[in-house]
């Protein structure tokens, strides 16, 4: 800008400032249809808005006219002020798009009045082009500051909420969760407390599972446990089965929210049984295998019960004992049907009757408690085994040993 043009530009500043009330009224009218909240703010806070506009526009035009380098159209203080406006919008749950639109409309209206005043003053269009640069650069900088403030506040809120959700998850999975404490923590996390929930245990090396759960689910800090609300809602179980297919996930039983630790513990026990081959499923729903989980909850106790139930059979030679235990297991599995046992073991029915006779001489097979203990120890520990024809198969025996993977093995 030439010296004469600069002089004319400086004279233009008070002219534009005198037009600012008209500028603000026009801005309010344009905002009234799509952004009435901002239009109302300009109208209701007119003296305050006008004072701020006069200071800002005066400094902006002076900077543009004097053509100083580096050309900073927005000061650090102004940038921080507009960043604070962006943060306030987030905290008040207001849409940032409306604010940015207000900036654009304000800049556009202001520039129209500046251009009109410049032309009326006789300033050549080539000389006031710098004013256009100043106006729209300022709008961009203020918009950027507000948007950054909004995004920073959004990130901070997200971090706060995520931390609150993790704290809530940790509370839910503690041995004793107080319902009142749960409600308070849920309120901080913005989580609606369901009537029931279940815990899904994920493999520690599965890092891509989070997208399979919606925002209503809570993920533990270590990423291995997920609280799923209302898992019995129609369709929820099928959804879990579909999205968790092939992920080696274990879905704990449904419990009251303040008892979720129980769901977690049973799910973790089922994880071990799945790893040992006792349980199958991907995903594995624990409530479908509660009987097996109960039997295996204490392996040492199960071993002790099995050894006690077999009693004197353990004192026989290994080969003899193995055959008798194999026959006994099949007999229990087939509910005393000797023909089914013979088919299962591929032996003659007379052989089955002979072995059962020996077993009756060693064990009180007519006593319900004895049969129950033997069934728990020999048949129940593992999944059903089927042969190629679909018929159940009794586990292969070994005297006085644990049953793993549904099969007995010598210890």
Quick summary:
Helix content is 61%, strand content 6%. By secondary structure, the chain is mostly helical.
Number of helices: 15
Low-confidence stretches: 383-411
How many β-strand runs?
A: 8
How are helices and strands ordered from N to C?
HHHHHHHEEEHEEHEHHHHHHEE
Could you describe the largest sheet, including whether it forms a barrel?
A: 6 strands, mixed
What's the CATH topology name of the largest domain? Globin-like
- How many structural domains? 3
Helix content: 55-70%
Regarding CATH, which class of the largest domain?
Mainly Alpha
Round the Cα radius of gyration to an integer and report it.
39 Å
Distance between the termini: 97 Å
Shape descriptor: rod-shaped
Q: Regarding quaternary structure, how should these chains be classified?
A: single chain
CATH architecture of the largest domain: Orthogonal Bundle
Structural class: mainly alpha
How would you describe what is shown here?
The protein contains 15 helices and eight strands. It has 411 residues and is mainly alpha-helical. The protein has three domains: 3-156, Globin-like (Orthogonal Bundle), CATH 1.10.490; 195-295, no CATH class; 299-408, Orthogonal Bundle (Arc Repressor Mutant, subunit A). Strands 1, 2, 3, 4, 5 and 6 form a six-stranded mixed beta sheet that branches. The protein has a two-stranded antiparallel ribbon with strand order 7-8. A hairpin with a 5-residue loop joins strand 2 and strand 3. Helix 6 (129-172) packs antiparallel against helix 7 (179-189). The model is unreliable at 383-411 (pLDDT under 50).
